[in-house]
Amino acid sequence: MSASVLRVSDLAVGLHLPGREPRMLLDNVSLDLGKGEVLGLVGESGSGKSLFCRALVRLLPSENIRITEGRIMLGDRDLAKATEAEMLGVRGGRVGMIFQNPTSHLDPVMTIGDQLIEGIRYHQKLDGGAARREALAIARQVGFTEPERQLDSYAHEFSGGMRQRAMIGVALSCNPEILVADEPTTALDVTIQAQILQLLLDIRSERGLSIILITHDLGIVAQTCDRIAVMREGRIVEQGKKRDLLRSPAHSYTKALIGSHPSMPISAGEMTATPPSKAAATDKPLLEVEEVNVRFAGAGNLFGGRSGAVHAVADVSLKIMPGETVGIVGESGSGKSTLARAVLGLTPIASGNVTFDGTSLRHDRVAFLTRLRREAAMVFQDPYNALNPRLAIGQMLAEVLKVQARTPPDQIPTRVCELLDLVDLGHEFAGRRPRSMSGGQCQRAGIARALAVEPRLIIADESTAALDVTIQAQILDLFRVLKRKMNLTLLFIAHDLAIVRNLCDRVVVMRGGHIVEQGGSAQVFEHPADPYTQALIRAIPDIDPDKPLLPQAAREIA
Amino acid sequence: MSVRALAVGRMGWRWRLGRQPALVIGATILTVFVVAALLAPYISPYDPIAQDIEFRLQNPSWAHPFGTDNFGRDVFSRVIWGARIDLQIALLGVIFPFVIGTLVGTVAGFFGGIVDALLMRLIDVILAFPFLVLVLSIIAILGPGLGSFYIAMALVGWVSYARLIRAHVLVLKNSDYAIAAVSLGFSRSRIMFRHLLPNAIAGSVVFSMSDAVLVLLNGAAISYLGLGVQPPIAEWGIMVAEGQPFITTAWWITLFPGLSIVMLAFGFSLFGDALGDALGVKE
């Protein structure tokens, strides 16, 4: 790549609260971005990667956060010292930004076309007709299939992937030299993610854009970037060419990040620790799902007619043996979470039957539910939403123990401590509330609550999706350990195939409410039979840059 | 806790109060009225209902700071004693609707379906009538008096609380912790009252403060119309009504009880705002 377009040297950003010592949020950050280069900025939440990007365009979140040192050279202009008026031309015009959540960054009361035209008129000074033509060209470039019609649509009429395309279009409408993409695909399904990443690369080669791609997923970086910078606690701990850095990371944190990436094969020790379904053939299944259907009624109209009923789960049959770990994968809307809730009796089923260890939902609903409530538990996706914000962790656990009434009242405090030990939380967490805890700690508390039931079956619904990679790896380890210690049966629902591959003995792939494929993990991942499964697997960004993200995988499904 | 930590804690407390003038002023006003009401027998200079025809319609003076009314009663003493009645009106006029509305709203939101539909239609019916008309008709049926007023407020006022709580419960019952509670075999009443209600109630607590203002004004209005507190008991609404014929010659009879109503309402309002900030309620 040729000369650098952006040169950041010794950038420091500090939080200056009146009457307190300033706290450094970014320290000594130096980066170069070449023309047409894609730079991956990797780090976990709180590492300062988003703040860095906001500092580039001087949109810092608070007046108390200021650039204290360093230079941001864009061409021959130092943005750290530019006036606010100069910055107006830079923002959008020279540095464009796209964000994780397009819904909140697109104007809901403006058509997509108007939002594109606004940028074109302001930054490129074109008049109405020319701007409209340019907007159409951009819409085509970002992959709108019917640009004429879609330009007159509003953001809410689009799917998540289309919205992200629209936001990229809005950024392009200002014709920037640099595009800063802050976790642009985190909220998207893998196949859509592959499409969006491919789109960014296409735009790069068509327009000669330089891109800073912020992400927590090393797989994405490995697939798309030329160079990688790893951030931690406001510093860049390591940067270098993608292949060099991935092959021989120098810093211990980079090594940990690479090691915890779910596409890395797990070590042999862990493999043997969970022998795949040891007694599957002899035992009868712990959980048996027979031709279950779940339908949600559509919105009724004024005359009572119901239209657009959703068939969320269609004729799903599934057997889970005691001690087995089964993963259910699928994209959003595939019905995997609905299936989990139906199995637990939390969502009524339209037809079919669920049998838990010989007790049938069909034959004796009350007995079935009673057994489930005492022998099965659920772990949720959003660790904060899953815990009652008004209860301390100890109170929460004690309540479960009290209601389940298997622990004598005087033993409850001891048992609470045992549960905290099981999930590696210190006893002081008994007195803490979710608000004062990190996401990973909340998730551990959520698992402790599930364990309080002394369950035989745990259903984990996207339980690691909201966590950082290293925390994710810790929680997965915890699941492995608990499974071994307590002989749990685990039904693990995820959209992240790599996680399922590492954790589960058996995989069930769902799409549109149907099971499209099921079988042993190794078999499904290495020799997927169904075309959808094949495409899904190929869309996983692998940490090995030589296993390319196949764009046709994404296109096949689109 | 070490001495140092204590000192820091206290500084933090003062600092926070200093940042919330609304809370300080509101709480001060409410405290003044509550103290006045509690200590009425000791701090009021005269008997509030003792008539003294010789000294009727006296200007405010050192002997009678707020003057005297047309029966020669000391307005200052009557305002202090009136605080007892008016605080009671604000308190009881809010508590009954609050409790009823909270229960109904929680049940309606939690169970949904036909229960919810029936309760919501009942609320629509009540809301279809102008508030005061409904209150006045109920009092007219039951006969004048404070008891009737409280019953009328309870029967009519709960609807706002029910709708507020229901909306929160509807959202919260789909939260993961509510679903977790179901999956752990918790009983319905435990989920409703231990898990949903405490998280849903903050908005209603704040609303109850502004509602207290309305109840207070309504109570005063009802008394003014002769349907609430009966003479000669000292109550600000009646005092305003009784002073009305003399407004051009003896303004103090109406001014001071009127000001008291405004001040107390102001206190509730400020305190409610501050409470909303403290509980993190966004309106």
UniProtKB/TrEMBL annotation, chain A:
Nucleotide-binding as UniProt keyword: yes
Localization per Swiss-Prot or TrEMBL: Cell inner membrane
UniProt membrane topology term: Peripheral membrane protein
Keyword terms, alphabetized: ATP-binding, Cell membrane, Membrane, Nucleotide-binding, Transport
Name of the protein in question: Glutathione ABC transporter ATP binding subunit GsiA
Gene of this entry: gsiA
Gene3D superfamilies: P-loop containing nucleotide triphosphate hydrolases
Pfam families linked to this entry: ABC_tran (PF00005), oligo_HPY (PF08352)
ABC transporter domain location: 6-258, 289-537
The UniProt record lists the keyword Transport: yes
CDD domains named among the record's database cross-references: ABC_NikE_OppD_transporters
Family of the protein in this entry: Belongs to the ABC transporter superfamily.
Domain of life: Bacteria
TrEMBL record, chain B:
Gene3D superfamilies membership: MetI-like
Sequence ranges assigned to domain ABC transmembrane type-1 in this UniProt record: 83-272
InterPro entries for this protein: BP-dependent_transpt_permease (IPR050366), MetI-like (IPR000515), MetI-like_sf (IPR035906), OppC_N (IPR025966)
Compartments reported by the entry: Cell membrane
Keywords: Cell membrane, Membrane, Peptide transport, Protein transport, Transmembrane, Transmembrane helix, Transport
One Pfam match: OppC_N
Transmembrane portions of the chain: 21-43, 89-115, 122-142, 148-165, 196-229, 249-272
Superkingdom of this protein's organism: Bacteria
Keyword Cell membrane: yes
Membrane topology field: Multi-pass membrane protein
Family according to the record: Belongs to the binding-protein-dependent transport system permease family.
The protein, known as: Nickel ABC transporter permease
